[in-house]
Amino acid sequence: MGQRQSPLEKLAMSLNMRGQVHPQFWSGKKVFLTGHTGFKGGWLTVWLSSMGAKVTGFSLAPNTTPNLFEAAGVAALCKQSHIGDIRNLDDLRNAMQLASPDIVIHMAAQPLVRYSYANPVETYATNVMGTVHVLEAIRSCSCVKAAVMVTTDKCYENKEWVWGYRESEPMGGYDPYSNSKGCAELVTASYRQSFFSEKEYAKHGVAIASARAGNVIGGGDWSADRLIPDAIAAFESGLPLMIRNPLATRPWQHVLEPLSGYLVLAQALYEQGIAFNGAWNFGPNDADARSVQEVIELLINQWGSAASWQQDGQPAPHEAHFLKLDCSKARQELAWNARWSLEKAIEAIVQWQGVFQSSGDVSSVMREQIQAYEHSHKSD
Ligand SMILES: NC(=O)c1ccc[n+]([C@@H]2O[C@H](COP(=O)([O-])OP(=O)(O)OC[C@H]3O[C@@H](n4cnc5c(N)ncnc54)[C@H](O)[C@@H]3O)[C@@H](O)[C@H]2O)c1
Fold first, then answer.
1. String of DSSP letters for 310-326
2. Is the minimum distance from the CB of 330 to ligand 1 under 6 angstroms?
3. Residue of the nearest CA to atom 38 in ligand 1?
4. What is the distance of C-alpha 242 from the center of its chain?
5. Is residue 109 in contact with ligand 1, taking CB distance under 6 Å?
6. C-alpha 214 to ligand 1 mean position (Å)
7. For residue 25, which phi and psi values (nearest 5 degrees)?
8. Does ligand 1 come within 6 angstroms of the Cβ of 91?
9. Ligand 1: residue whose CA is nearest its atom 43
10. CA distance linking residue 123 with residue 117, whole number of Å
11. In this structure, are strands 249-251 and 289-291 parallel, antiparallel, or unpaired?
12. What region does 28 belong to: left with phi over 0, alpha with psi -120 to 50, or beta?
């Protein structure tokens, strides 16, 4: 188990530091993280390890070159880094039992909409059965006290309306990716009721929540079909960026925003248990639900050399046009707030990219950005 806290420390935490990530909480905690070879997982491993957490990662090998896992030396920051497949229950269960974690954060997924149209079976197998397997593995580990299951804002039935979605709204998802994440939410809710019920909490001792965030941006993302990686690749090769839906509006946020939400939520689940069970939205402030065109124009302004975009007239599969989250619950009950504006997020990406291009130490710049994020206030 992690370092014990005195009752006084616990009180200080609950009174003074709501809504903040507490390094003293994470120091010595054993965290089982799926998806550590990916974009969000790489950032989270850097953050957790900088606070002294003992991270066991479990994921497939990175599937792009370059990738954040290698660029930031993520394996070396883990206590154990397993290259494994969450579709294989036995391997996953063995790795989790070996790690005997206090906290599980499940982020591994097939996360791309376009890829899900081409590979629906793989997408459902990873995102739905993978989630079942993570929950099964938790059932076999008596040490786990808290689990955060990461899904997406796309899990909601999208009504293309102007209001933000609340956690209580129906699950849906048009394309296989979005729908598989809606299914993963239902799986988590079913396991919580069936095997980790609130009535039986004294017996099983596990609190479980799911976390839904929007489009995430930050340094170190090389995924296919994502706006910022596509833009940087185009700008670096001197070509205009081709944009499919310039008017599509998304809740853009720097990767540190949802990660801080997951950490604050995990702290609350661990410290206060089932009171924090359920679903949580972690989106940006309303002002940062902006069109693709606006985001790209901000990036072009900060890029510094010739960069441009053009509309791509090619037919594209259906994607949601308007989507935003209502984050009142996280603000009210977890005191979590988005801190960085879109402008600040883009500035951080350009800084990260500059360090990467000059073969600098990207894990250091990540730690600096994490510190700057922690010291910033609401929407700097
Ligand atoms: N990036 C975003 O904009 C965004 C937005 C909302 C939600 N999310 C969610 O956040 C999570 C992380 O996304 P990301 O952007 O870091 O994606 P990513 O593609 O960079 O990383 C995905 C991770 O999952 C792992 N993975 C995939 N299939 C696996 C399998 N079968 N077994 C084991 N590991 C497997 C990969 O190896 C990788 O570590 C995902 O659950 C995604 O759906 C991402």
1. EE--S------SB--B-
2. no
3. 38
4. 26
5. yes
6. 13
7. -65, -45
8. no
9. 111
10. 9
11. antiparallel
12. left
The residue type of 58 is F
HSE toward the beta carbon, residue 305, CA cutoff 13 A: 10
Pocket test for ligand 1, best of 178, 216, 259 (most atoms within 8 A of CB): 216
pTM: 0.94
- Catalogue the E-assigned strands of the chain: 30-34, 54-59, 80-83, 103-106, 146-150, 207-213, 216-217, 241-243, 249-251, 253-254, 278-282, 289-291, 309-311
66 preceded by a cis bond (ω within 30 of 0): yes
For the chain, what is the mean pLDDT? Answer: 92
Cα–Cα nearest to 266, from 322, 349, 314, 210: 210
Cα distances (Å, whole numbers) of residue 253 to 18, 213, 274, 349: 21, 9, 28, 12
| Residue 59 Cβ contacting ligand 1 at under 6 Å | yes
CA distance linking residue 139 with residue 93, whole number of Å: 9
Q: Could you tell me which CATH class the domain 7-375 is placed in? A: alpha beta
Ligand 1 touching residue 85 (CB < 6 A): yes
| Predicted confidence band of residue 244 (pLDDT cuts 50, 70, 90) | confident
89 CB under 6 A from ligand 1?
Answer: no
Which residue ranges make up each domain of the chain?
7-375
Is the beta carbon of 37 within 6 A of some atom in ligand 1?
A: yes
State the pairing for strand pair 207-213/146-150: parallel
Site of tokens 């793989």 = 122
Report how far residue 338's alpha carbon sits from residue 380's, in angstroms, rounded to the nearest whole number: 9
- Banded pLDDT at 322 (limits 50, 70, 90): confident
Q: How far apart are CA 40 and CA 319, in angstroms?
A: 22
CB-based contacts of 62: which residues, under 8 Å, 6+ apart? 37, 38, 68, 69, 70
- Residue 350, pLDDT score: 95
Rounded CA separation 149/338 (Å) = 20
